[in-house]
Amino acid sequence: MDVEQLMKLIDKVSESDLTGFKYEENGIKLQLNKKENLVMGTTAAVQAVTPEAVKVTGASSKAATDLEEGVQKQTGTSEAAPVGNVVKAPLVGTFYAAPAEDAEPFIQVGDSVKKGQSVAIIEAMKLMNEIESDFDGTVTEILVKNGQAVEYGQPLFRIA
Fold this sequence. Notes:
Biotin_lipoyl, CATH 2.40.50.100, Biotin_Carboxyl_Carrier/Decarb, Biotin carboxyl carrier protein of acetyl-CoA carboxylase
């Protein structure tokens, strides 16, 4: 499948009522999932596809960008691989960086944290769930904003 056919496929899935689509050909697996009129593309096994093959110039499709990033991750051609461990959301909900509106955030970039230390709260179904660090280290990046909705497994913090 060439890039032009791939883009047509992404557009067709975007326009349809489908919420998911899987395609496999010659050891290449493609999975498209749509949520809120946004198509997300992932590749499961890439053997013959290179980042250059899926490079799309002038495309406004988020799916094409996600697909290209997925190929870069799997082929190891990403420009700079982030360093450190990632604390991920253990549940779906709303992310809060502080225990109260007027309180200081649990952590900030540059703070050192210990395994088991509270680093955030995720509100789910009116319950406040404290999120603990799975790692010892220094916070190098906060990947979500206060009050932002987060999904299960979504990266929250990077700790080196």
